[in-house]
Q: What sequence folds into this?
């Protein structure tokens, strides 16, 4: 049988039957499935709070169905107390599924560290000097986070431009940093 998140009448199943489906779909162990239930509430109470409930994690834990993302079926866990959100997400995913589901793409995980230099007598010469030292600046920046560099990230490029402002020309330097899967703000600030 083909694995699909398109489950007609899922909301009619008991919470125990839903959890069993999620366990099978997600290939959870008995221990993982029992951890979903949590403590402090009954499934009967939770089932009246949100749609498709399967457990409890301080708030009811339900699942949104029908998600086809990049050609692969997903069931999406949602911990929420607000009624109708899970049903609305499942319904929207069902409608999107009819058109082929959701397609995703991503850009490189680049962040920009910006340095602004003001009150320069000759910002164009300063720009030239910074660009001439581009490779050395990138190398110095990467020494600040060797772990990020070892994971394939780090400072990758340097952009420098002269910007005219109310007080004359300023120099704006952008250090482009590949943050990989990190949020990146601390790494970028340290490198810049």
A:
């Amino acid at each position: 049988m083909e694995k699909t998140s398109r489950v007609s009448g899922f909301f009619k199943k008991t919470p125990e039957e839903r959890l069993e489906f999620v366990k099978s779909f997600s290939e959870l162990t008995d221990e993982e499935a029992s951890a979903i239930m949590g403590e402090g509430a009954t499934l009967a109470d939770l089932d009246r709070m949100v749609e498709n409930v399967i457990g409890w994690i301080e708030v009811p834990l339900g699942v949104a169905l029908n998600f086809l993302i990049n050609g692969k079926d997903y069931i999406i866990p949602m911990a929420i107390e607000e009624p109708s959100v899970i049903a609305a997400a499942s319904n929207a995913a069902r409608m999107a599924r009819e058109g082929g589901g959701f397609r995703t793409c991503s850009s490189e995980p680049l962040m920009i560290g910006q340095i602004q230099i003001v009150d320069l007598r000759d910002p164009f010469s300063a720009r030239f000097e910074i660009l001439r030292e581009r490779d050395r600046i990138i190398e110095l920046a990467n020494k600040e986070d060797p772990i990020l560099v070892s994971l394939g990230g780090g400072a990758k490029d340097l952009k420098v431009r002269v910007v005219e402002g109310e007080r004359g020309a300023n120099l704006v330097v952008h250090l482009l940093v590949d943050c990989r899967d990190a949020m990146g703000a601390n790494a970028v600030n340290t490198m810049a």
Remarks:
- Residues 10-98 form one domain.
